[in-house]
Amino acid sequence: MNIVHLVHCYYPAIGGTEFLFQCVSERLVAQYHDQVTVLTTNGYNPGYFSFPTEKAIPITENEQQNGVKVRRFPVYNRLAPRLAQWQHTAYINHWPFNDVLRTLYHGPISWPLFEAIRQAQGDVIAASAFPLLHMYYAALGKPFNRLPLIFYGGLHPDDDWGYNRPIIYRAIAACDLYLAYTSFERDFVIAKGKSPDQVHIASPGVAVEPFLTADGLSLRRKFGWENFPVVVFVGQQAAHKGIDTLYHAMRLVWRQLPEARLIVAGGRTPYSSHLDTVLDSFSTQERDKIQLITNFEESAKPEIFAAGDIFVSPSGYESFGITFIEAWAAGKPVISCRSGAIPAVIEEWQDGLLVAYQNVPQLACAILELLTDQRYREQLGQRGRDKVLAQYTWDIAVARFRGAYESVIK
Questions:
Q1: Nearest Cα residue to 107 out of 75, 139, 84, 85
Q2: CB 172 within 8 Å of CB 192
Q3: How many domains does the chain have?
C-alpha cells in the first residue's frame, strides 16, 4: 500500500499527534512493508505557526526516518501577529467568517505544502488534526489528487475557540472516512451530520514492553526522592493541560502530605512563560519539591512514568490522551478531568479518578486519596494495564488503522 500521511508537525517535533503518526508510519513500513510518505511543516510545535520567534526544524532533501519518507515545507508565519487581534475581535463579537480568521491565525500557512497535497500520489491520504489549516488543504486538494481521504480529526469540542468553527464540519463532509479516537468523538461527528457508516473508531496504542520493565528508582535517586510519594505529569506545557491547576493543588496536598513530590515532564511552548510565573510565586521550599524535565528522548518516557506513584493530567480536553495508556502500561493509576472525551477513555473508579476541570480542591483530594492508599492505587493501575494489553498495544492499534485504510480504498 502506498500511503500519504499529512500532519502539522513530525518528529523531532514532540506532541501527541506527532508521536501517533510517527508510530503508525514506522510500523506500517516495518510490519506491512507499506510505502509511507509524510507531508509536514518545519515546526517543532504548532506555536511556530503563530509565533515567528519559535524555533524551526531544518529542511533537508531526501529525509528518511526508519523507512518513512519525510517531506517538510516552510511556513509563512509573519502574518500571525496581525491576525492575532483581528481573529480575537471577530470571535468575541461573533462576526461573520470569524472561524476563517481563527483558522488562518492558527495556521500553518504554507503554499508549498498545499501544492504537495494537490499533486500527491498514492493509494490513500490520511490527515490529522483539526483545527489546523492543513486539514483544509487536504479537503481542497482532493479534487486534484483524487485520492481517498481519511481524517483523524482529533476534535476537542469543549475548546470553543478552537473547535466551534462551521468550516471544520464542512471540511469533514469532504472526507471519505473519519477516524474517531473515542466513542465520544464518533457520536459528536455523527451529530454534526457525518454519515454513521463513514465514521469508525480507531484508538491509538502504546509500545507496552518498555513500560512493563521500566525501573524509575534511578530517577528517584537522582532527585533524592527514593522514599517520597511522587506525582508525575507528562505532556507539553500547553494551556489546556492544567499544569497550573496541578501546581496549586500540590500546595494543598503539602498541607497534609508535605513529603509529596512532583515531576513535570514535557516540552516548552509559548504558554510556558505563564507557568514560570506561577512557580515564581512559590517559596524556595515548595519549589524544591518540584522537578521539571523539559528535554528528554521518547525512550526516557517509561522511566519517568515508573518514577511516579500516580500519573496526573488535569487537562480540559483531549482527543484521546496517549499519556493515559502509557501510565497504565507502567502500572500507574491516572487522575484527569471529567471533560470531553476523557471519560470515554478513563473508567472512573476502575482505572482512574476524574475531577472537575480547574477545580484545585477536588484535584488535591484525588491526589491525596491515591497517595495515601497503596492498595487502591495498585488496584487501579493493574486494571489500567490489563485494559492496555487487551485494547491498546501498537499491534492492535496499527491493525485498526490499516484496516480502515483498506476499507476506504475498496
A1: 75
A2: yes
A3: 2
Residue 402 and residue 381 share a domain: no
Q: How would you class 5 by CB atoms within 10 Å of its CB: exposed for 0-12, middle for 13-18, buried for 19 or more?
A: buried
Pairing state of beta strands 35-41 and 63-65? unpaired
Which pTM value belongs to this model?
0.90
> E strands of 28-163, at which residues?
35-41, 63-65, 68-73, 124-128, 149-152
Q: What's the one-letter identity of residue 169?
A: Y
Distances (CA, A) of 405 to 22, 123, 127, 168, 201: 17, 9, 12, 22, 13
Single-letter amino acid code for the residue at 394: W
342-389 confidence digits (pLDDT tens): 999 999 999 999 999 999 999 999 999 999 999 999 999 999 999 999
Nearest-angstrom CA–CA distance, 46 and 243: 19
Task: Kindly state whether residues 225 and 353 are assigned to the same domain.
Answer: yes
- Residues, the chain, total? 410
Structural domain containing residue 15: 2-205+393-409
Whichever domain contains 146, its CATH number is 3.40.50.2000
- Whether 364 and 398 map to the same domain: the answer is no
